[in-house]
């Protein structure tokens, strides 16, 4: 999903365990199933959702590794599926844009080393009640009428199924809307033909299809897909924009009418690849906002596209899980609880303060900034966080931001400092795209914060609004 430009060992002090509890405080078990690890939630009763959908396994709720930039490594994926199971989510979708065999060179097979690691991930996911969905993205050059291309695609999917994958995904996003092949009147007809053939020949437990027009209400294309694509196939939608600053019930119902089914919501938050691909570090640590209560009633499934920073992504992903599973979701309370769940006790106060300086996003620009008045406090925060947080991988991911915050604080106190434009924090939110693109396609709003210290460096891209 193009949320950004681009082509294509913990001690007792470390983390609170999350025990599934109902709103009354009692441990709850909603329904037994073969993978009942996914049937309970740490956030409360699931009574407002369909117990059948959530617990028998027909509704996928989780994370898609669908960003641009360096893919996660297998250790990060193993850690993530444990986290997903712990917070009540049940799906991980493999779809990193920069894996060439997933996208650019999709016709080539994966090797035995990849198979061994995938089997290891499947084994771990099974223990935690998480389903692994494997995606291929052949849209850059697939010929929709080519028997050879269809056979290659089907055989590659079959190989994953032989390894134990039961859920598949076909992604045709972020490609030119070019109709390749003969015998089709429209792009929607060609894509529906390919999707239906794979679905009927492979018979996966579920098939998730991301169309080329995956946001907004492209009525002619979406209506034709809704009429032609097998009703058992999930169809992805990201909202009215690529990374939607809000999603309403009315919008979900409108796209449902076009698609003849509830949309499979791909939520492009907390993804930050539209910074990463330009060499910029910008964390999204704020809570999920502006989604309707009981969201799961209006979708056939839901995946969050996370940040390139896997460990740091857990902070907002915890709030995503609670937004889906807790009818009493409160964003600020959930954000505080996420830190309790993820950070060791001695580091929680400092990490909460750190989040306040790194929570801005296209959904909510509110964020603390570094000033001359609080510079001493910020320097203490940076020092204490480095000393108190036990998760060394989390510290590694946030270290560039800590360094920038320290530099801003010293600059605010009058010290000679060079500030790097390659890290944004503390009241700076400046995506490298025009206001027009943000408003029309990316977010639906102009999401930009320019801090008081911005004059200390010069960015290399075009001036804002051009």
Describe the secondary structure blueprint for this structure.
Blueprint: H1 51-56, E1 60-65, H2 74-86, E2 91-94, H3 112-127, E3 131-136, H4 147-163, E4 167-171, H5 187-202, E5 206-210, H6 219-228, E6 234-237, H7 249-259, E7 264-267, H8 273-276, E8 281-282, E9 301-304, H9 310-325, H10 331-342, H11 348-356, H12 375-388, H13 392-412, E10 423-424, H14 435-442
Parallel strand pairs: 1-2, 1-9, 2-3, 3-4, 4-5, 5-6, 6-7, 7-9, 8-10
Helix pairs in contact: 2-3, 2-9, 4-5, 5-6, 6-7, 9-10, 11-12, 12-13
Keywords:
466 residues; alpha/beta; eight-stranded parallel barrel; two-stranded parallel ribbon; 10 strands; 37% helix; globular
